[in-house]
Structure formats: C-alpha cells, structure tokens
Amino acid sequence: MTLLSVQNLTKTFQTPSGPVHAVRDVSFEVERGECLAVVGESGSGKTTLANMILGILGATSGEIRFDGATLPAKRGPVHRRAIQFVQQNPLSALNPKRNIGASVRLGLDTYAIGPRADRWLKVEEALEEVGLPREMRQRAPSSLSGGQRQRVGIARALACEPELVVLDEPTSALDVLVQARVLRLLNDLRARKKLTYVFITHDLAVVRNVADRVAVFKAGQLVELGRTEQIFSAPEHPYTRSLIGAVPVVDDAELELRNKLAEGT
Amino acid sequence: MTHLLDIRDLHLAFKGLSGLTEVLHGIDLSIAAGERVALVGESGSGKSVTARIVLGLLQEMRNARVTGRVAFDGADVMTMAQKDRAALRGTEMSMIFQDPTSSLNPTFTIGNQFAEVMRRRDPKLDQAACDARATEMLTEVSIPDPGRVLANYPFQLSGGMNQRVMIAMALVNNPKLLLADEPGTALDVSVQAQTLRLMHDLVEKHHTAVLFISHNLGVVREFADRVYVIYRGRIVETGPTDAIFHSPGHAYTRALMDAVPRITGAGLPAVPEVSDDFLAPMVRHDGGAS
Ligand SMILES: Nc1ncnc2c1ncn2[C@@H]1O[C@H](COP(=O)(O)OP(=O)(O)OP(=O)(O)O)[C@@H](O)[C@H]1O
Ligand SMILES: Nc1ncnc2c1ncn2[C@@H]1O[C@H](COP(=O)(O)OP(=O)(O)OP(=O)(O)O)[C@@H](O)[C@H]1O
Ligand SMILES: [Mg+2]
Ligand SMILES: [Mg+2]
C-alpha cells in the first residue's frame, strides 16, 4: 500500500541573482514499510524535497499525498506527528536554550504521547537506544559532539512514534560502529512498527545495506529509480554509474565491483 | 625530525553539574610540515575538542581545563597571549568546522565572509580583489556558479555547497596547518572525491599540513599519510595509513574496520559488545614521517 506519493513536484526559489530550479517535476511513490534511499549530486534538491514533504516549504507546483489524502500546505498536529524529520544539520535543528532532555520531550508533550508521568523515562530510553547515556538529558546541545547531536535528532524523531521518517544524512557524523548500531535500530523499528523511511544520504555503502529502492537525483531531477540490487548490479543512468564509480572503498572486493559498475559492463 | 604541530600529554576536563569530567586522558600527536595526518575514532571520543585546543579556542573557555603541551611552528600555544593565538587563526592555521553554522555567519553574504578572511592576511585588499580571488577558489572546489554563491547567504546554499565554501575559505590564505573536521560529509561521492583531490593538490603545492578528522575510512585511506585512532579520549593505535589498514593491531581498530559497510552488500555489520580489549594499551606501527 502506498503511504507517500509525490506527483510532479517542483520548487523554484526566486533570488536576486535569478530563479533557482531546486526541484523539477519529480514524481515517485513510497510503500508503507519501505525504505527509499534518495541519493545524488550535492545541491540537487534533496533537502528541498524533504522540506516540502515535511511542510516546511511550500511547493511551487505539484502534489504530495500521504496515506491516500492530499497533504495541505499548513499541516495539522496529526500529520506533524506522523511525519518526522531528522535534519541534515543537527546543531541548527536543536534549540540552544533547551537541554537535550527537554528537546526530546517536547514532541511527547505536544502530541500527548503516553502518560505524562512516564515521559521522562521514555526520553531516557530514547537516548539510550541511540547509544547515549541517560545523563545526557541534562546537557546543552552546544556541549555535545557532532555525532552525539545527530543521535539526539534521531531519538527525538523516533520518540514521537511516527509513521514516516525523513532522514537527511542521519549518520554522517557517526563512526561506523555507532552507525551500525543506529542503522540496526532503524531496521528493527521499521520491521516491528511498519515505519517508512525516506533516507537521504551520500553514503552508497549504507544505501546498499539498508534501502529497498534507490532514487537518484541530479540537478533537481529524478534520473533513476530502481530496486537496490538492480542499482548496484546494473545501474542504467550514466550519472548513477559515475556516482558508484567514485565511492571510497576499503577492500579489494569492493574495488573490483566499483570498477566493474563504473565501466557499465 | 622537527614537527609543525607537537602535542604532548594533553588532558582536557569540563566542569559540569557533577564536577569535573575528563574527556582527554593524555594525548600525544604530532604532524610534520606538509604531512597529512588523520584522526579517526569513536563519536564523542575527543577529536573535535583536540582540534579546537590546537586553535586555542578551548583554552579561552571558562568551564574547560586544558593541560599539556601544544607547540605550533616552534611557539607554545598553551602559554601564548590570547591575541597572539587569535592572530594565528585564519592565517597560519585554519579550521573547517564540523558544524557549518560555527564557520559561516548567517547574516553576511559568502562574498563578505571571504573578504573578511582574506583581510586577516592583507588588510588592504579591496572588495574587487577579494571577489576575484574568491571566485577562483570556488571554481577550484567545483562550485558551478561562483557569482551567485558569493551574493548568497549560507541558508540559500545546500549543505554540500556550504561545505565547499568552507574548504575554499580555509585554504584561501595558504595556512601552514589545516584542521579539517569532517570536511566531506555533506558532499556527494563524486564532488567529495574531486574536492579531496583538490585539497590534496593544494596542500601539496603549498606544503600545508593537515589534521584530517573523518569517520569515512575509505576517504582516510585515500587521503592520509598517517593515522591516529582514538577511543574514549586515548590514542589506541598509530602508524602509516597502510599499516593501519592492512594490519590493524588494536581490538578497537579491528572492530572499526570490520564495521565499515561495503558496497558489495553483505548486510549491516554485526555490532560487537564493547570489550575490555578496547581499553588495551596503544599499538604503535613504526614508519611514516613523524
Ligand atoms: N532558501 C533558498 N533560497 C535560494 N536557493 C535555495 C534555498 N534553499 C536551497 N536553495 C538552492 O536549491 C538547490 C538545492 O538545494 P538543496 O539543499 O535541496 O540540495 P541538496 O540536494 O540537499 O544538497 P546537499 O547534498 O549538498 O545537501 C541549491 O542550488 C541551493 O542553493
Ligand atoms: N562544552 C562541553 N561541555 C561538556 N562536555 C563537552 C563539551 N564539549 C564537548 N564535550 C564532550 O567531550 C567529548 C568529546 O567531544 P568531541 O566533540 O571532541 O567528540 P568527537 O570525537 O569530535 O565526536 P564526533 O565524532 O561525534 O564529532 C564528548 O563526549 C562531548 O560530549
Ligand atoms: Mg541537503
Ligand atoms: Mg566531532
């Protein structure tokens, strides 16, 4: 069943130096329980697309449907809770005046999730699940490392018990061990709670191991969309091939695969 | 061998609600002129704070306590007057911060920010000269439309564009030492490869030393001459890049290498339990420049 449907979505920014065509006529669908990876050129409109799905930015034209109904430009609390966002820049996503615990708790209070008396416990559990100590609740965002902040962003989104999570580079500031732990958590939750992810990332090795399908963006357009195995065994668009050809690798098996795919044979 | 940067027995503690918490427990790290050194390891283990101490930023923070020796280009960064430290920043040493909002000011255009950085080196430069040089640098980091970008504010640029702007700005004054904290995370792999190649060429040409902080071990393997691995505020392994990748000796380094996701798609790596072996003594591979 389709949970998210994006139809002919376009976003043009007007700037003093002329219009910027950030997203051009993009259409795709995401099934409930699916993980769709969005990859592509830097500046190709991925974050802009995310902002439109979240209702942070209005579309210039086109339509976004969620669970069968058109999403209004101004979102009510039901949709705000159901669609959560893990933002690309974790520092600007956290209110500097709130400690970590209060930031994570805010969603629980706003959407009245669980009995009030249990909410601090839920906050601490959410932090622990992403590998942060419970005591971190007390700390200010500015005193956290980059990867610690990033995990707070994930904990905060997941605590709201969403249906769809748009993750914009959610593990770019994590070492690979912590990253593996967070990705496993995301996978478990997806299986257990039928969560749906739009997973924006530049890390193709992560994509290979977590996504069901992959959408490739270039200059505001969707240039290739396919099942993960297909994208990594027979990429069709030259841009997809050039992306895979540039992946930094650590072992010889990867190097061989990368070179084979890049040549398009 | 003389070092451009020499850190000895560096300790750092923060005063918090529950008293002092030590986060660096005696770090030794050195970089020769022109050398590219990577610092990799656990999230929260102390990489960014180490770089900020080299820049002299944490010494000025009230709730931080820093001890140990940090020598840069023969001068002692720990005892140096605050204004002398400030004079080094952006000229002799520059930093690409992990978080773009600490590098870029949201209220000034990119063009104005470039000019400010260039005038730290040469106060007499006029705006036209600054713009010309900035355009050149932005072109080098493959920003497609430098004119537009110079007129933009940071919020009008994508994450990766801001990152390339920061890289260009950090190199515009030809520093002796570049501290690059996760410089490629917001870049697609093609632009990342291109940007790192450029960074590599620029630092080679100008004999700039680099402390390269990254979680991307594939990138580290391609970029660095030598690697330090840090775990919970201690260096656990150090040596030439090849040695670290081909014969990692410390349990933490091995766990880290095993956890790198592969494009060959073996599934998500298993996460080992945190083991006491991760706290074993440091493994040192000989060789390399320092
Ligand atoms: N508020 C804005 N005003 C003007 N232009 C903007 C604005 N926000 C984004 N843009 C432009 O839209 C384009 C797409 O930006 P976006 O942030 O969506 O890219 P992205 O794919 O997320 O890139 P990255 O991988 O680097 O994060 C860029 O050219 C950017 O400069
Ligand atoms: N101002 C502060 N007050 C208290 N603790 C702090 C402060 N700044 C940093 N820390 C702590 O010091 C430790 C080291 O932080 P640092 O930012 O150097 O980590 P890092 O290795 O760069 O991690 P990441 O890879 O996640 O960016 C972290 O546990 C962090 O929470
Ligand atoms: Mg983005
Ligand atoms: Mg850091």
Key features of this structure:
heterodimer, A: alpha/beta, Rossmann fold, 2 domains, 4-stranded antiparallel β-sheet, globular, B: Rossmann fold, 7-stranded mixed β-sheet, 11 strands, binds adenosine-5'-triphosphate, binds magnesium ion
Fold blueprint:
The complex is a heterodimer of chains A (265) and B (290).
Chain A lengths: L1 E14 L2 E14 L3 E6 L5 H8 L7 E6 L2 E2 L6 H6 E4 L3 H4 L6 H11 L8 H11 L16 H14 L4 E5 L7 H18 L2 E5 L3 H7 L2 E6 L2 E7 H6 L4 H8 L6 H12 L2
Parallel strand pairs in A: 3-8, 3-9, 6-7, 7-8
Antiparallel strand pairs in A: 1-2, 1-4, 4-5, 9-10
Chain B lengths: L4 E12 L2 E13 L4 E6 L5 H8 L9 E9 L2 E2 L5 H7 L4 E4 L3 H4 L6 H12 L5 H14 L5 H6 L7 H13 L5 E5 L7 H18 L2 E5 L3 H7 L2 E6 L2 E7 H6 L4 H8 L24 E2 L6
Parallel strand pairs in B: 3-8, 3-9, 6-7, 7-8, 10-11
Antiparallel strand pairs in B: 1-2, 1-4, 4-5, 9-10
Helix pairs in contact in B: 4-5, 5-7
The structure holds adenosine-5'-triphosphate (2 copies) and magnesium ion (2 copies).
One adenosine-5'-triphosphate sits at the interface of chains B and A.
Biggest sheet of chain B, open or closed, and with what strands and sense? 7 strands, mixed
> What strand order characterises the main sheet of chain A?
6-7-8-3-9-10
Q: Provide the structure class of chain A.
A: alpha/beta
CATH superfamily of the largest domain in chain B: P-loop containing nucleotide triphosphate hydrolases
Uncertain spans of chain B, ≥5 residues at pLDDT below 50?
none
CATH topology of the largest domain in chain A: Rossmann fold
Radius of gyration of chain B: 19 Å
Low-confidence stretches of chain A: none
What is the terminal separation of chain A in angstroms?
35 Å
CATH domain fold name of the largest domain in chain B: Rossmann fold
- Per CATH, the class of the largest domain in chain B reads Alpha Beta
Distance between the termini of chain B: 7 Å
Radius of gyration of chain A: 19 Å
Strands of the widest sheet of chain B, in order across it, are 6-7-8-3-9-10-11
**Level-2 CATH architecture of the largest domain in chain B:** 3-Layer(aba) Sandwich
Domains of chain B, number:
2
The number of helical segments of chain B is 11
Shape of chain A: globular
